[in-house]
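Design job #97: recover the sequence.
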């Protein structure tokens, strides 16, 4: 098994990783990459098992900074990562999650629905009469940014720079090709600026800010419930987490619908399928393709011995295409109505923002879907970002044949169907 090789970097893999994932699931479902020593887990049941297994730790900072050149000082970045919810384990994680997740409970998410709809409508309104749409820059980047600032109680004027800082961090996290030293420098710089920004916001909290998420964090700090670093790290963490993945889902979903015109027509004919369609976009082109854990004890998975300290790469993008679980997994089917996909992870670290992300994306597609039958991609064949960890087109511009952008939302009242992030924590 150790002699098996899989190319997870080349252009063919980046363009379409799914045939390689199928081969990995069938031939080497736990595969140790001889170059990095990381063990890739590709079958659904194994991925799910590890996500629920406390013998695998989420504190993977040491592995993250292993490949950073010595001359880059990452100490500030490490400080800002170490207290981030997604890096913590056990009771510390449980305590932090209660606070960090407080703005994203099912009831809270439902309360954001009409505000999110209004923001989406405003965005479409500002694009009205255009006959082309730059899906990333006009829609998929600005909407999640504005929504998360509003949910947290941060000023809307800051969305541009927060987006840019979040992007620098993401490029570093994604291990994209290129100069890793320069990329790390930029990520450190951006995270330090973001940390100063968050600290300034906490200090300058307006009296009217009471009741906002940021105000709750400030109160936790004042009461000694959270340290300053925990508050700063997690505010940055939530802002970052809310950006890239949601942006990718909007762009990936657009590609899915344009490449499957029959499914687009079905959705137009049956607007109630919208939430099922968004779940299918999450399964079919998962924005977070790979997440990782560190083994705390020796275990064996699919015949491979995992030693303490080994980095285990959980390939969500493969688990979500596993034909041991999903019928005809390589077909995009808006009627599938499948909630067992792992696109938001599972277990104790199940994405806290999943409900909010789904809400935003449903709201956007209610406006976009009626326009898509007359649209085609004019930015060339879809080029995916050159990283196996995240999946998103690098560019996506579409042109409309005979319609300009209008406000044309379809479907009736859907708020009752808003998916929640809560129900699946133990699922
Ligand atoms: C389509 C959009 C999104 C996707 C695909 C996604 C994906 C994920 C995944 C896979 C995890 C699990 C990470 C792990 O177990 O190591 C996660 C965790 C997390 N996500 Fe999301 N996410 C999305 C949107 C959001 C949004 C909008 C927010 C914030 C509002 C958010 C906040 C978080 C946080 C705070 C965690 C850490 C949870 C914990 O460690 O307990 N995410 N997300």
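Job complete. Output follows.
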């Amino acid at each position: 098994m150790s002699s098996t090789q899989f190319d997870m970097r080349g252009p063919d893999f980046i363009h379409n990783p799914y045939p390689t994932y199928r081969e990995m699931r069938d031939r080497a479902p736990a595969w140790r990459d001889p170059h990095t020593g990381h063990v890739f887990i590709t079958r659904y049941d194994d991925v799910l098992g590890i996500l629920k297994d406390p013998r695998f730790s989420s504190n993977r900072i040491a592995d993250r900074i292993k490949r950073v050149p010595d001359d880059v000082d990452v100490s500030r970045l490490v400080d800002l990562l170490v207290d981030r919810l997604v890096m913590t384990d056990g009771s510390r994680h449980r305590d932090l999650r209660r606070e960090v997740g407080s703005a994203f409970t099912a009831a809270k998410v439902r309360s954001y629905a009409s505000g999110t709809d209004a923001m989406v409508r405003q965005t479409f309104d500002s694009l009205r009469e255009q006959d082309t749409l730059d899906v990333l820059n006009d829609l998929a980047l600005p909407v999640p940014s504005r929504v998360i600032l509003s949910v947290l109680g941060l000023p809307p004027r800051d969305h541009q720079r927060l987006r840019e800082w979040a992007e620098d961090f993401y490029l570093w996290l994604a291990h994209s090709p290129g100069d890793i030293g320069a990329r790390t420098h930029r990520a450190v710089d951006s995270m330090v600026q973001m940390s100063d920004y968050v600290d300034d916001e906490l200090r300058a909290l307006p009296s009217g800010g009471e009741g906002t998420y940021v105000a709750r964090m400030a109160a936790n700090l004042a009461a000694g419930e959270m340290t300053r670093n925990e508050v700063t790290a997690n505010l940055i963490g939530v802002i970052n987490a809310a950006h890239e993945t949601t942006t990718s889902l909007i762009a990936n979903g657009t590609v899915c619908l344009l490449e499957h015109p029959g499914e687009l027509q079905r959705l137009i004919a049956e607007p109630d399928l919208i939430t099922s369609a968004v779940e299918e976009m999450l399964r079919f082109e998962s924005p977070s393709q790979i997440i990782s854990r560190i083994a705390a004890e020796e275990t064996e998975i699919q015949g491979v011995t995992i030693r303490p300290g080994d980095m285990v790469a959980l390939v969500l993008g493969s688990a979500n295409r596993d034909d041991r679980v999903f019928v005809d997994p390589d077909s995009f089917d808006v009627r599938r109505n499948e909630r067992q996909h792992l696109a938001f992870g599972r277990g104790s670290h199940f994405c806290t923002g999943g409900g909010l992300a789904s809400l935003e994306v449903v709201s956007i597609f209610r406006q976009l879907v009626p326009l898509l039958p007359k649209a085609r991609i004019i930015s060339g064949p879809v080029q995916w970002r050159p990283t196996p960890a995240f999946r998103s087109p690098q560019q996506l511009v579409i042109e409309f044949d005979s319609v300009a952008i209008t406000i044309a939302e379809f479907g009736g009242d859907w708020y009752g169907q808003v998916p929640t992030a809560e129900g699946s924590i133990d699922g």
